[in-house]
Design brief:
The complex is a heterodimer of chains A (113) and B (114).
Chain A (H helix, E strand, L loop, with lengths): L3 E4 L2 E4 L5 E7 L5 E7 L5 E9 L2 E4 L6 E3 L9 E3 L8 E8 L8 E2 L3 E5 L1
Parallel strand pairs in A: 2-11
Antiparallel strand pairs in A: 1-3, 3-8, 4-5, 4-9, 5-6, 7-8, 9-10, 9-11
Chain B lengths: L2 E3 L4 E5 L4 E3 L2 E3 L5 E7 L5 E7 L5 E3 L5 E5 L4 E6 L8 E8 L8 E2 L3 E6 L1
Parallel strand pairs in B: 2-12
Antiparallel strand pairs in B: 1-4, 3-9, 5-6, 5-10, 7-8, 8-9, 10-11, 10-12
Classes of the chains: A mainly beta (113), B mainly beta (114).
């Protein structure tokens, strides 16, 4: 089955620790995205990548980092510099064409204690 | 600046009733327009999208949306709501030159009464 995998579903970390969220897709999509979702705030773009070895900051990139070493993988690291990391994180991918559908993973809920 | 407004934060309807969720956008030309649905604790799923052609677009799960250029709107409708339609609904737009980024509305939460 083709799709987007995010792991784990739930993640708990202590304050001050870095944590990496996994995102893998087997859809052969060029572009990948990371969003953060908080209640009442919709989807906010953290980082996106249109091609391997290249990525761009979104609207709320501070305190986060990414890499895109392989087409199918786009991991997100939440660093200790992120002031309020507890949130629901969504990964998405699409072909890099105007109007193409974004496909979403099931999300990872991160709780920092 | 481009923007998407979903005026209704929360809507409650009775099962079997009709539904209309509003979406207004601000963009210089006609952008690509999308409606997505999100069940609690899940990812988002595309319901339908529009760029050109017939202004009434059919989607999955019995949903449709109508594009009205004069009102800069792209409202989502369903003739008869089912309890399983309870979810969060997001409108989004993509304009040419956006570097493949979508602009998202804040969402409308739909509750369905039995």
């Amino acid at each position: 089955d083709g799709g987007i995998t995010q792991s784990p579903k739930y993640l708990f970390r202590k304050e001050g620790q870095n944590v990496t969220l996994s995102c893998e897709q087997n859809l052969n999509h060029d572009a990948m995205y990371w969003y953060r979702q908080d209640p009442g705030q919709g989807l906010r773009l953290i980082y996106y990548s249109q091609i391997v070895n290249d990525f761009q900051k979104g609207d709320i990139a501070e305190g986060y980092s990414v890499s895109r070493e392989k087409k199918e993988s786009f991991p997100l690291t939440v660093t200790s510099a992120q002031k309020n990391p507890t949130a629901f994180y969504l990964c998405a991918s699409r072909m890099d064409r105007y109007g193409d559908t974004q496909y979403f993973g099931p999300g990872t809920r991160l709780t920092v204690l | 600046a481009q923007s998407v407004t979903q005026p209704d934060i929360h809507i409650t309807v009775s099962e079997g009733a009709s539904l209309e969720l509003r979406c207004n956008y601000s963009y210089g030309a006609t952008p690509y327009l999308f409606w997505y649905v999100q069940s609690p604790g899940q990812g988002l799923q595309l319901l339908l999208k529009y760029f050109s052609g017939d202004t009434l677009v059919q989607g999955i799960k019995g949903f449709e949306a109508e594009f009205k250029r004069s009102q800069s709107s792209f409202n989502l409708r369903k003739p008869s709501v089912h309890w399983s339609d309870a979810a969060e609904y997001f409108c989004a737009v993509e304009g040419a030159g956006n570097n493949r980024k979508l602009i998202w509305g804040l969402g409308t939460s739909l509750a369905v009464n039995p």
